[in-house]
Amino acid sequence: MGQARQNAAQLVHYLRFKVNFNDAGSAVAMLKQRLPKGAIPLRANAYKTTAWNSATSAALNVGFVGGTGTELINAADVKTATGLAAGTLSAGALAPLAAETQVQASVAFVGAPTAGAAYVVIEYVPDNDLNAGQ
Fold first, then answer.
1. Rounded CA gap, 118 and 37, in Å?
2. Bridge partners of 108?
3. pTM value > 0.70
4. Which domains are assigned to the chain?
């Protein structure tokens, strides 16, 4: 998967990736990009471009490999109409990351969908403020 990207400029950084209805089975974790050591997540959102057409439900989870898998977005409804599904950061995402951390995404659905897509954007600030990890 490679290593986490980190720009030397003091800017808000982001990860952006797409999740499709046919990427994996229900609730199967898909490995995505990495956040660098020391990064502090600011917010995570899912921008639904096509609603999942599963039978009764479709819930998007985004979190950390080795964690709960829901630290950034927990059970965001991706079955209803298109638009924004805002994530709520859990306590596990509210401190600088102790190590480079891989992000995972999953969609738990009931009734196999034949359509559905969303872009996930995770905003974070890296530890590049010249404080050497303070």
1. 27
2. 59
3. yes
4. 25-124 (2.60.120)
